[in-house]
Amino acid sequence: MACERIVFSGPTTGVYARSHDGWFGVLPGHAPAAFALAEAELRVHTEGGTRAFHVQGGTLYVRPDRVTILTERASPVA
User: pLDDT tens digits, residue range 1-28?
Assistant: First the structure.
């Protein structure tokens, strides 16, 4: 399956998500890592506020300069 769309792209001050082991956060300077995501809310903190998305599982990848999330579905939470 190909990537259908980008739901969010931009600078963040933190990303908070839930794995099958519980909640975790990724802040600037986090070591490279990969996390399996549970179906849950994912929060993206930016200078302008917090944006929330409901994700249906997937994987969150951390690199020194970015976080990439691949998921089957991501919908904004109102």
Answer: 556 889 999 999 999 999 999 999 999 9
pTM for this model (two decimals): 0.89
Q: CA-CA-CA-CA torsion for 61, 8, 45, 38, nearest 10 degrees?
A: -50
Q: Is residue 6 part of a domain?
A: no
Asked if residue 8 is part of any domain, the answer here is no
For the residues of 37-64, what is the DSSP string, one character each?
EPSEEEEEEETTEEEEEEE-SEEEEEET
- C-alpha 21/C-alpha 37 separation (Å) is 9
Is 32 inside any structural domain?
yes
> What domain range is 23 assigned to?
14-76
- 53 and 42 Cβ atoms separated by less than 8 Å: yes
Assigned token pair, 66: 């970015």
CATH at residue 63: 2.60.15.10
